[in-house]
Write a structure and sequence with these properties.
The complex is a heterotrimer of chains A (332), B (330) and C (570). Chain A has two domains: 38-94, no CATH class; 111-331, MetI-like (MetI-like fold). Chain A contains 14 helices and four strands. Chain A has helices at residues 2-32, 37-42, 48-58, 64-77, 105-140, 145-159, 162-176, 192-227, 229-236, 241-269, 273-279, 284-293, 297-325, 328-331; strands at 79-82, 87-90, 97-98, 103-104. A two-stranded antiparallel ribbon of chain A has the order 1-2. In chain A, strands 3-4 form a two-stranded antiparallel sheet. In chain A, helix 1 packs antiparallel against helix 13 and helix 12 (284-293) packs antiparallel against helix 13. Chain A starts with a helix and ends with a helix. In chain A, 47% of the residues are buried. Chain B folds into two domains: 69-101, no CATH class; 111-321, MetI-like (MetI-like fold, Orthogonal Bundle). A two-stranded antiparallel ribbon of chain B has the order 1-2. Classes of the chains: A mainly alpha (332), B mainly alpha (330), C alpha+beta (570). Chain C: Residues 1-26 form the signal peptide. Chain C: This is Peptide/nickel transport system substrate-binding protein. Chain C: InterPro entries: Peptide/Ni-bd (IPR030678), SBP_5 (IPR039424), SBP_5_dom (IPR000914).
Chain lengths: 332, 330, 570
């Protein structure tokens, strides 16, 4: 176990390092390179006075390294921020201030998180149920048409943009059949039934093709496990087939599925940009597109960092999960 | 030469490389796969359509940017006159609601943007990826570490989010198609780089490379003369899979309204304006959606075929694929 | 945006009018809602309002509205208000708290008002003219920025006054000789003063209850409803009947529902979808900021029941091409005229959603009597452009082989100044040998560029709406040479400084007979139109859905929007 713990620690440390590098890159790209970052941060409607104020706030007259240090300090310890009319405290993690919205970036993003979480977690549940279920079934009926079908759908799922599926589903279920309402996001806390009902289409759009990937993965991992020696031994000793499948083969097949889930979830938390835009879900992804349109730079930078955070974290978690399941990885 | 292993989980061992099959052999193996063959047929057709776009539009007698006020019903919000989105002898695939612009002409011109940007971005990614991968593989430990970690970061980043953010800070005057190619190219070289590095490392230890080194050949000379030819197969395999994901990314960005600028026709942008019309004029939605779908699928089928042809043993390691390639997924 | 007072005031003029009344949808007299919904309106029930933009500002000093706003008008009464009637009648100004629309002195520089009897706040205390004066003074405070700029420009001493928090002395140019009389002293003649007195800065604010920037959470109501909840900075507002409001003192507001629930932060498509299906509470719902799009309209028109629930409105607005004659080749009137002839208004109309959402315009003034509409077509382009005439003019101007120009526009799709209209014009001008390159800019960059004297391009799309239905606020900011703003937001895009035009504007402003003034504005519009400084393109028409149970839909030409004060849900 110590080996595993060490691996996990090492992996998380590496992830932290990557995040640090990422934050430097992003900071440099958005705040140091452009002509007048104060004007960009403040938004195009700011007066010269306000731009000057923002310049001081961002410390743009300081050397680049000091600026970055200030930014990091805000991120970990919070900082006081000038809002144009006064000063307010921006607690950690402080991602800056959106002058266009008159609000702190952190709180703007926090407001968007529930919608993104609703979308991602719901879709995940759906693709796991459909994907793993189909995978197990097809592993039991080895070979033939299921395998080819799964391969085809997986390929399509990896490539075809989600908005195409979304639009086609919308055409079918809303326009032609009239079974589902035109999706409109309702917060879970407001009306759980409406929340679920309105998210069915976005969930389906994300899950349909994704689940094929999971089915294929489950299937091949299970076949691998089933062919392993110890499983064969169980069979030889007359352990019942259901028990072999349920307790041993499935258990052996799950780690890669869990690892992949962590990865996909991380990416999706970082912003399911297209799905959210298509269905008008007020999450992080839609927020990104909106802020790019209005050139609200602090929000864009904040979102990019948050996205990077989720993705890098998911990668590390996936690796650790994978290692837990498959010790050989650690030893290698 | 197993790309899948190179792509796979940390610590996966590389096999001994084998000689890459020649172009003729590749084609022979591809021909055996029906899906790949169908993909090739569709792609050839699409490329021809893109190249002949002005000719095809002229044949129909339409201009992609010309408005036709009489082809839409102004009082009804601008729905096309006639059935199936205004299909007629003049407008073979109907017209765009509101403007009355000819859909056939816009779609064939749109093929140029989709294919052009998709392919050009792939070229940039491959060139960058090979360069970085070679440098990491041949360079000293420090350089290798630096480049490999950078590659890890690049691979982890969700392409779409970063592309959107980058497009935000570039001045409006910059030519948009070039910008799209650059942004997609700069964000998507990680996978190629990782493959090339691993491949280089394993080749480096081989006899003939060692012999060349002993013979006094410099690093870069070795890279050029000995390594690049052996890298061809895995790089071709991987780039065949990059094309569809780039096409999908371009469509996604255009769909979000940050792709090429109007009036340049692009499928993604057409689809995004079509979404508001999905009830009143479904034909308008189905055309660009279908085209993007078919194009991406055709390139994917070809890519998969190339992989199978070059490396018949490669079972798809999905975990690896999921990490290495990021299309416009979320 | 007003949190920061980032927005230059004049910009707010254009932007906020659009945002608040803007997308306006009102119903022309031809399909007045009362008829459509059937049955007599009755008291009771809850009216739901489904909106996109939250009511972030609910302080009468910070609100920038036309005619007192829609939802704000339920809580804030003002000296005068708009006539809440359908169509053209609705663009008249009528008394609200005051007994009449004001008594001017001879040259319209002094205006006197008297309050009605029995006016009370939500707590039962009496409304006095001192409170109205205090309310106006608050609107000068920097802390409460966002309101309209007119009082600062018009009131004597308004330029220097810093608001009641810094300047305890108050504004000397507003006198309150007794609790029922208020007198305004202006620095120049303004016949339109009664129209200005409809804005929320003229609402009474009791000094003792003023909580500064927090006042908007619970402003003291003088109208038929009071605020009982304001969640998430205006995202959810709940209004309930103000029992101290006396219908006998208010001839304008009907106030049928007992409760009004305003929910915002919704997507436009979602609002229209909910209104059209109208299930549950949505049957008693309306929207005050969401128009039907062309695609939605195309769907709805086929459905009789739905089509009967669409209100149509005409808010005074013009979308046009603007020239900057300081930039070549637009210094040559012949080039400007050639473009005026080449324009194809039918494709522009279609780009904006077809003939039910936009009407072709050849005058700068909106096609409404209150603005002084006088029909003219200085450069007849016909239905789809006169390319031959345009080519002829270009030849005369020295461009026999045509020319290449750049058209600047807003890059956001669906905008009236957006790429749809720009590409339509590009196509039309091509027929006349004019090659148009497009420069699409992000909304705020676009508006900053076209409104800066130094950055202004030669050829761009623009739009204009007035803060009240009169020729003055429509023409003066655009064509008055003294309103050219060198450093800041400039709306006189042609940078016209014509002494004759300036003099005529001053002359008309002296008129207190609004009808007579309107005729003169119309004549002035025609005269300026001949200079081809702009090419009027379209006047938008607004269409909006309302719920199944909604009765007594009144949509005036002033706001172009369904009036929430008149609606009944029982």
């Amino acid at each position: 176990m110590t080996l595993l713990t060490r691996f996990a620690l090492r992996r998380l440390l590496a992830a932290l390092l990557v995040l640090l590098v990422l934050s430097i890159a992003v900071y440099a790209l958005f705040y140091v390179l452009p002509g007048d970052p104060a004007r960009l941060a403040c938004g195009p409607k700011c007066t010269a006075d306000q731009v000057a104020q923002v310049r001081t706030q961002l410390g743009l007259d300081d050397p680049a390294l000091a600026q970055y240090a200030h930014f990091l300090h805000g991120l970990f310890a919070g900082t006081d921020i000038s809002t144009g009319v006064g000063t307010e405290h921006c607690g950690a993690p402080c991602l800056g201030f959106s002058y266009q919205n008159g609000e702190q970036v952190t709180s703007l993003l926090a407001q968007r998180l529930p919608a993104t979480a609703s979308l991602s977690l719901g879709a995940m549940a759906l693709w796991l149920v459909i994907g793993v279920g189909t995978g197990v079934l097809s592993a039991l009926r080895h070979g033939g048409i299921t395998e080819r079908l799964l391969t085809a759908v997986t390929l399509a799922g990896n490539a075809v943009p989600v908005f195409i599926i979304g639009i086609l589903l919308m055409l079918l279920f809303v326009s032609v059949l009239g079974w589902l309402p035109f999706p409109s996001y309702v917060p879970l806390t407001e009306d759980p039934e409406q929340w679920a009902w309105n998210l069915v289409l976005p969930w389906l759009s994300l899950a349909i093709l994704e689940s094929a990937k999971y089915a294929r993965l489950t299937r091949s991992s299970m076949l691998d496990t089933l062919s392993e020696d110890h499983v064969r031994t169980f069979r030889a000793y007359g352990v019942r087939e259901r028990s072999v499948i349920g307790r041993h083969a499935l258990r052996g097949a799950l780690p890669p599925v869990i690892a992949l889930t962590a990865l996909d979830l991380g990416t999706m938390f970082g912003g399911a940009v297209l799905t959210e835009s298509l269905f008008g879900i007020p999450g992080l992804g839609k927020s990104l597109v909106d802020s790019v349109r209005t050139e609200d730079l602090p929000v864009v930078v904040g979102l990019v960092l948050v996205t990077g955070f989720f993705v890098v974290l998911a990668n590390a978690v996936a690796d650790v999960l994978y290692a837990v399941a498959d010790r050989r990885v650690v030893l290698a | 030469m197993t790309t899948s292993d190179v792509l796979a989980a940390p610590g996966a061992a590389s096999d001994t490389p084998e000689a890459a099959p020649g172009a003729r052999q590749l084609w022979r193996r591809l021909r055996a796969q029906r899906a790949a063959l169908a993909g090739v047929a569709v792609i050839v057709l699409l490329v021809l359509v893109a190249l002949a776009a002005p000719l095809l539009a002229a044949l129909e007698g339409q201009d992609p940017d010309a408005y036709h006020a009489s082809a839409v019903d102004s009082a009804l919000g601008g729905v096309p006159v006639g059935s199936f989105g205004g299909v007629s002898a003049d407008h073979w695939l109907g017209v765009e609601p509101g403007t009355g612009r000819d859909l056939f002409a816009r779609l064939v011109y749109g093929a140029r943007i989709s294919l052009g940007i998709g392919l050009a971005a792939t070229v940039v990614q491959v060139v960058l990826g090979v360069a970085v991968g070679l440098a990491a593989g041949l360079g000293n430990r420090f350089l290798d570490n630096l480049l490999s970690r950078t590659t890890d970061v690049m691979l982890a980043l969700p392409t779409l989010v970063f592309a959107i953010a980058l497009l935000a800070i570039v001045p409006a005057g910059f030519p948009r198609p070039v910008l799209l190619v650059l942004v997609l190219g700069l964000l998507g070289w990680g996978g190629t780089s990782r493959i090339v590095r691993a491949q280089t490392l394993s080749l480096k230890s081989l006899d003939y490379v060692a012999a060349a080194r002993l013979g006094g050949a410099g690093r870069w000379r070795i890279a050029r003369r000995e390594l690049l030819p052996s890298l061809a197969a895995p790089v071709v395999t991987y780039s065949a899979l990059l094309v569809p994901s780039n096409i999908a990314s371009e469509a996604g960005l255009s769909f979000l309204g940050i792709g090429v600028k109007p009036p340049t026709p692009s499928w993604g942008q057409m689809l995004s304006s079509a979404t508001t019309w999905y009830q009143a004029d479904p034909t308008y939605v189905l055309l660009p959606a279908g085209l993007i779908f078919v194009t991406v699928l055709a390139f994917t089928a070809l890519g998969d075929g190339v992989r199978t042809a070059l490396d018949p043993r490669a079972g798809t390691r999905l975990r690896a694929v999921a990490r290495g390639r990021k299309g416009a997924r979320p | 945006m007003s949190h920061l007072s980032v927005t230059p005031r004049r910009l707010a003029a254009a932007a906020v009018v659009l945002a608040i009344t803007g997308g306006a949808a009102a119903c022309g007299p031809e399909d007045s809602g009362a008829k459509a919904a059937g049955g007599k309106p009755a008291k009771g029930g809850t009216l739901y309002v489904l909106n996109q933009s939250p009511q972030e500002d609910f302080d009468p000093a910070r609100l920038y509205t036309s005619g007192g706003g829609n939802v704000p008008g339920l809580v804030f009464r003002t000296l005068t208000t708009r006539n809440r009637e359908n169509g053209a009648d609705g663009s008249k100004v009528v008394p609200d708290l005051a007994t009449d629309t004001g008594t001017p002195n001879k040259d319209a520089t002094v205006w006197t008002y008297h309050l009605k009897d029995g006016l009370k706040y939500e707590d039962g205390s009496a409304i006095t003219t001192a409170d109205i004066k205090y309310g106006i003074e608050r609107s000068f405070a920097a802390e409460l920025s966002g309101g309209a700029p007119y009082l600062r420009d018009w009131l004597t001493g308004g330029k220097e006054y810093q608001g009641p928090y810094k300047d305890k002395g108050g504004l000397a140019s507003i006198e309150t000789p007794d609790a029922k009389t208020i007198v305004f002293h202006l620095n120049k003649p303004e016949g339109d003063f009664p129209l200005l007195a409809t804005q929320t800065s003229f609402a009474p604010v009791p000094k003792a209850k003023d909580t500064g920037t927090k006042y908007e959470n619970h402003p003291v109501s003088s109208g038929p409803y009071k605020v009982v909840a304001n969640e998430n900075d205006g995202e959810h507002l709940v209004l309930e009947r103000n029992t101290h409001w006396d219908a006998k003192t208010d001839e304008e507001r009907k106030a049928y529902p007992d409760r009004i629930d305003v929910r915002s932060g919704l997507d436009a498509a979602v609002i229209n979808q909910r209104l059209s299906s109208g299930s549950g509470k949505d049957a008693a719902a309306v929207t005050t900021d969401t128009n039907l799009t062309a695609a939605e309209l195309a769907k709805i028109t086929g459905d009789k029941e739905l089509a009967g629930r669409v209100g149509t409105g005409h808010f005074g607005y013009t979308d046009y091409i603007s020239f900057n004659p300081k930039v070549k080749p637009f210094d040559d009137p012949k080039v400007r005229q050639a473009i005026s002839y080449a324009v194809d208004r039918s494709t522009v109309v279609n780009a904006l959603g077809g003939s039910s959402l936009a009407e072709p315009a050849t005058t700068f003034l909106p096609a409404q009597e209150s603005f002084g509409y006088t029909p003219y077509d200085a450069f007849p382009a016909g239905k789809s452009g006169d390319a031959a005439k345009a080519k002829e003019l270009l030849k005369e101007a020295g461009y026999p082989k045509g020319l290449t120009v750049t058209l600047t526009h807003d890059s956001s799709g669906g905008d009236e100044q957006g790429p749809e209209v720009a590409t339509a014009l590009q196509d039309a001008l091509k027929k006349a040998g004019i090659t148009v390159k497009l420069e699409g800019l992000e909304s705020s960059a676009y508006s900053e560029k076209i409104h800066g004297v130094k950055t202004e391009p030669g050829f761009f799309l623009a739009g204009w709406g007035a803060d009240w239905p009169s020729g003055g606020p429509f023409l003066a900011p655009i064509f008055d040479g003294r309103q050219i703003v060198q450093d800041g937001y400039n709306f006189n895009n042609a940078q016209l400084d014509d002494p004759a035009v300036n003099k005529e504007i001053d002359e008309i402003n002296k008129l207190t007979d609004l009808k007579a003034a309107a005729v003169r504005w119309g004549a002035l519009d025609k005269k300026i139109g001949e200079q081809a400084l702009t090419v009027p393109l379209v006047h938008p028409v607004y269409k909006r859905l309302y719920g199944k149970d909604v009765k007594n839909v009144v949509i005036s030409d002033w706001t172009g929007v369904l009036d929430v004060a008149q609606v009944s849900v029982k």
